């Protein structure tokens, strides 16, 4: 540590310097004969503690402290004064003055006063180092949490309250109005994922989800200073210029509508996917609002509602319902006397949605395409049924390959790694499944989402560690995977009904 002694009396400076160097061998001491010389020295010497005489020729000590404190608020001060009582003591405390020494002072008083100040500085250093380490851990974990939050917001496989807690913990600010962009990447473009995520983070304009197959969802905050289209065009171009011209082939962005509520982001996501259905355009992006108008169905239910149901039915594996709805649509189009070619296109749009959702779930399959232009509605039904069957077979074959104990593998992985930044992406990599399917599987088979299970694992581990009275609650916080003791305490109390401190007291048989 570095200490600066500022006093116009040379004998005082030498005496203090001698006492400090003899009793505190790990400090570096320098002297200054007045306030102005001290101010000139600070930028190069950067002292941790200044012993400042108050009465000096020229600038007095208190004015010097004010000036130094305004530029270097981290520096601590001990005032040197000949008066036990002084009317500026309250002002001095606000400026970082920790204590004062009377002239003349006993050696023991000097050692005690300076020793306490140095101890406080050391404690603050340790706290700062710990805070910096925690911040770096949080910063490193942020992309993982960010991708999980996007997954939860868009697919609703987790309770909203837990999503809100994650957003609060990582200070993830959502915009008042938001929309979703879906980026479609060709095979081999996965290597650009981290670059895309960094580009969005640099712009501070949204959050990037996990890469599902070839699809990358991005939640974008609406910028009220720009028109919607100018904001999207600027951002789309910023993303599409990441690869070179050759690598850019096959890149396409679909843009959903803007919504006020976070709960409506799922709708914007579905719209963004639908907007990518025709990638053979002269541009590499398309707004959902520019998609051709859809047909109106029976009972006032329009085609967009049918699309929305399709997303959910396919994600849930309700293929009988999917087939029933598609065939009902074909019969309705025939009854309404619709043009056969247009009807074929409408049905193909639904099959295309099914294809996109299967990609989302990590199911590989051939794109659904009619072999030729159909000649009548009966042929349309027949060929549509064949395409649906192929999609269904791909879905079944994919999940038949899963081991029976997949959910147990996932549970065991979470239990063994609960102290780490476990995410849907890390689990997906472990068991070779899509993050969305894992979230869905967990909810269906265990009745809880994976974050709830992860939290329970961490709290149970914390309870066991609390039996070791030599471990502090702060140490336990970090050991079970949390980086913020306050957040850990909040989560613990929510699950256990008591705070960690109260729980530990109960283990010791202490009521209060």
UniProtKB/TrEMBL annotation:
Residues bearing PTM 4-aspartylphosphate: 53
Domain Response regulatory: 2-118
Superkingdom classification of source: Bacteria
Protein name: Response regulator
Keyword Hydrolase: no
Residue stretches making up the HTH araC/xylS-type domain: 408-506
Keywords tagged on the record: DNA-binding, Phosphoprotein, Transcription, Transcription regulation
Gene source species: Bacillus spongiae
SMART domains: HTH_ARAC, REC
């Amino acid at each position: 540590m570095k200490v600066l002694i500022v006093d116009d009396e040379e004998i005082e400076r030498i005496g203090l310097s001698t006492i400090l160097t003899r009793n505190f061998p790990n400090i570096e001491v320098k002297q200054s004969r007045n306030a102005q010389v001290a101010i000139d020295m600070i930028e190069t010497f950067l002292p941790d503690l200044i012993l400042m005489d108050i009465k000096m020729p020229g600038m007095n000590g208190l004015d010097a402290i004010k000036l130094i404190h305004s530029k270097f608020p981290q520096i601590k001060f001990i005032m040197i004064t000949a008066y036990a009582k002084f009317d500026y003591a309250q002002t001095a405390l606000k400026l970082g003055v920790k204590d004062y020494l009377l002239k003349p002072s006993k050696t023991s008083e000097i050692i005690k006063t300076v020793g306490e100040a140095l101890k406080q500085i050391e404690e603050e250093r340790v706290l700062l180092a710990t805070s910096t380490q925690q911040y770096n851990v949080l910063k490193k974990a942020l992309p993982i949490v960010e991708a999980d939050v996007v997954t939860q917001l868009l697919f609703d496989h987790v309770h909203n309250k837990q999503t809100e807690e994650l957003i609060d913990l990582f200070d993830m600010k959502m915009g008042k109005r938001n929309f979703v962009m879906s980026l479609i990447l060709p095979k081999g473009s996965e290597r650009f994922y981290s670059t895309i995520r960094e580009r969005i983070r640099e712009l501070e304009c949204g959050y990037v989800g996990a890469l599902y197959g070839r699809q990358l969802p991005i939640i974008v905050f609406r910028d009220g200073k720009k028109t919607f289209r100018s904001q999207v065009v600027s951002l789309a171009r910023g993303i599409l210029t990441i690869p070179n011209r050759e690598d850019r082939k096959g890149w396409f962005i679909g843009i959903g509508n803007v919504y006020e509520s976070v709960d409506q982001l799922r709708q914007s996501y579905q719209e963004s996917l639908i907007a990518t259905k025709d990638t053979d355009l002269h541009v590499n992006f398309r707004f959902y609002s520019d998609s051709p108008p859809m047909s109106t169905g029976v009972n006032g239910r329009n085609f967009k509602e049918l699309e929305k149901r399709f997303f959910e039915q396919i994600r849930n594996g309700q293929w009988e319902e999917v087939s029933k709805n598609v065939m009902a649509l074909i019969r309705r189009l025939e009854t309404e006397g619709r043009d056969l070619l247009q009807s074929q296109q409408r049905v193909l749009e639904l099959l295309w949605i099914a294809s996109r959702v299967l990609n989302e779930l990590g199911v590989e399959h051939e794109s659904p395409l009619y072999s030729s232009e159909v000649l009548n509605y009966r042929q349309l039904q027949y060929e549509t049924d064949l395409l649906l069957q192929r999609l269904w077979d791909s879905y079944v074959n994919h999940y038949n390959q899963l081991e029976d104990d997949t959910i147990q593998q996932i549970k065991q992985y979470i239990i063994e790694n609960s102290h780490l930044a476990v995410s849907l992406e890390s689990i997906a990599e472990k068991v070779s499944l899509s993050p969305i399917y894992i979230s869905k599987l967990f909810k269906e088979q265990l009745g809880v989402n994976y974050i709830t299970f992860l939290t329970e694992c961490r709290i149970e581990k914390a309870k066991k560690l609390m039996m070791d009275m030599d471990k502090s609650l702060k140490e336990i916080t970090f050991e079970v995977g949390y980086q913020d003791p306050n957040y850990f305490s909040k989560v613990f109390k929510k699950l256990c009904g008591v705070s960690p401190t109260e729980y530990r007291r109960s283990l010791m048989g202490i009521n209060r």
